[in-house]
C-alpha cells in the first residue's frame, strides 16, 4: 500500500490494462492524460499536457509517485518531429518529478520499431533484422523516437537515482477506444462489416506475414510484466521484449478469427489488399450499422486504425521475439494468442462496440 503509481496514458490500450492490474494489487493509482477518463473505479485522474511544463507542475503539485509508467506517445508527420515531441514529453515529466525525490522506478513502453525502424523507414535498408528479435541487438543507424525516449529515461535515472525498465511489446491486443494502434479491434470491425455486407474476410497483408511465424502481446500480459519489473530486484535496469509466449502463422489464425464472426475467410491471393483502402468508404456504413444494432461508438475512426494494421500485416518479413531475458529473471506469464483475440471480441460485443 506504500506504492504510488503514476500511469501516463492511462486511457490507452496499455495504460488502462496496467491501471486495472495495479489497482487489483492494492496500489494507489493515478492516471495522467490530457483528457483522463474516470470510469475505472479506484483510478484517480490527473489532467495534464506533457508538452506544457506549467501544466505538469500544477497537476502534479501534490503527488509524490514512487513508480512512473510511461505508456503514451504522440504521432507526428516525420520522425524528426516524433523525436522532438516524444522525447520532450518524457523529459518534461521526469524533470517536474525530480525535485520531489519520491520516484523509485520508471518504466517506459516502446515497441518492436526499436528493431524494425520508425514509421517512415519501416523494415527498410535491404537487410532484415535477425529473428527472433532479441534485446541485445544494437540500435539501427536511423532516427527513432524510441531511442530518444530511452535516452531521456537513462539521463534522468543517472541524475535522480531511480531504477528503470524498458518494455518492447509486439502488436497489442486489447480493448481501447480512440487508440492509434489497435489491430484486434480493427479486425473485429472489419469482420463485422464483412458480416453485415456479405464481403469476404480477405487477408489484407503480405505473403511473408501470411506464411511466416509471428506473435502478439496481450495487453494483460504487458500489464503484468510492467508490475513485475517495477517490483522485482533482479528485473531492474533492463530492456524486455514482451509477447504472449506462443507463436503462430496468420494462415492458421485467420480462419479461426473468421469462424468467430461467421464470415468467409480468404487467404493471401498474391496481392496485398490494404485495409486502409478497403475501409476508406465505410464511415457512413459503420454509422448505419451502429444505429441498427444500438452500438455506443458510431465513429469508425474511433475504433479502427487500418493504417497501423496494414503496417503490421504488410511487413515483408516474418517477425517474432525472444522472451529469454525476462524468463530467466522469473517472468513466466503465458497467454494463448487465439484466446487474446476471442476475449477481446467478446468484450467488444458485451460493451456494444461491435454487433
Automatic annotation (TrEMBL):
Residues 65-355 form the PRISE-like Rossmann-fold domain. It holds the Pfam family PRISE. CDD domains: 5beta-POR_like_SDR_a. It comes from the Bacteria. PANTHER family: 3-OXO-DELTA(4,5)-STEROID 5-BETA-REDUCTASE. This is SDR family oxidoreductase.
Amino acid at each position: 500500500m506504500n506504492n504510488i503509481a503514476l500511469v501516463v496514458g492511462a486511457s490507452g490500450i496499455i495504460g488502462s490494462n496496467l491501471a486495472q492490474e495495479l489497482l487489483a494489487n492494492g496500489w494507489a493509482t493515478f492516471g495522467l492524460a490530457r483528457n483522463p477518463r474516470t470510469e475505472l473505479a479506484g483510478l484517480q485522474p490527473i489532467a495534464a499536457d506533457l508538452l506544457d511544463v506549467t501544466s505538469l507542475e500544477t497537476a502534479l503539485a501534490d503527488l509524490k509517485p514512487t513508480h512512473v509508467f510511461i505508456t503514451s506517445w504522440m504521432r507526428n508527420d516525420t520522425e524528426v518531429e516524433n523525436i522532438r515531441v516524444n522525447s520532450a514529453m518524457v523529459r518534461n515529466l521526469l524533470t517536474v518529478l525530480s525535485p520531489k525525490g519520491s520516484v523509485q522506478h520508471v518504466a517506459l513502453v516502446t515497441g518492436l520499431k526499436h528493431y524494425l525502424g520508425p514509421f517512415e523507414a519501416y523494415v527498410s535498408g535491404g537487410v532484415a533484422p535477425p529473428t527472433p528479435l532479441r534485446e541485445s541487438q544494437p540500435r539501427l543507424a536511423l532516427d527513432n523516437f524510441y531511442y530518444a525516449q530511452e535516452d531521456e529515461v537513462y539521463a534522468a535515472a543517472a541524475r535522480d537515482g531511480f531504477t528503470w525498465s524498458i518494455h518492447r511489446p509486439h502488436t497489442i491486443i486489447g480493448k481501447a477506444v480512440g487508440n492509434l494502434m489497435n489491430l484486434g479491434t480493427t479486425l473485429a470491425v472489419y469482420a463485422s462489416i464483412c458480416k453485415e455486407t456479405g464481403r469476404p474476410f480477405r487477408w489484407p497483408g503480405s505473403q511473408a506475414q501470411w506464411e511466416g511465424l509471428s506473435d502478439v502481446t496481450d495487453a494483460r500480459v504487458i500489464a503484468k510484466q510492467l508490475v513485475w519489473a517495477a517490483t522485482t530486484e533482479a528485473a531492474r535496469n533492463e530492456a524486455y521484449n514482451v509477447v504472449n509466449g506462443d507463436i503462430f502463422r496468420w494462415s492458421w489464425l485467420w480462419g479461426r478469427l473468421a469462424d468467430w464472426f461467421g464470415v468467409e475467410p480468404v487467404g493471401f491471393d498474391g496481392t496485398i489488399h490494404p485495409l486502409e483502402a478497403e475501409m476508406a468508404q465505410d464511415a457512413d456504413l459503420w454509422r448505419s450499422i451502429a444505429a441498427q444494432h444500438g452500438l455506443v461508438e458510431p465513429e469508425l475512426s474511433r475504433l479502427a486504425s487500418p493504417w497501423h494494421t496494414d503496417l503490421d500485416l504488410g511487413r515483408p518479413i516474418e517477425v517474432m521475439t525472444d522472451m529469454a531475458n525476462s524468463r530467466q529473471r522469473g517472468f513466466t506469464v503465458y497467454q494463448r494468442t487465439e484466446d487474446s483475440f476471442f476475449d477481446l471480441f467478446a468484450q467488444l460485443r458485451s460493451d456494444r462496440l461491435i454487433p
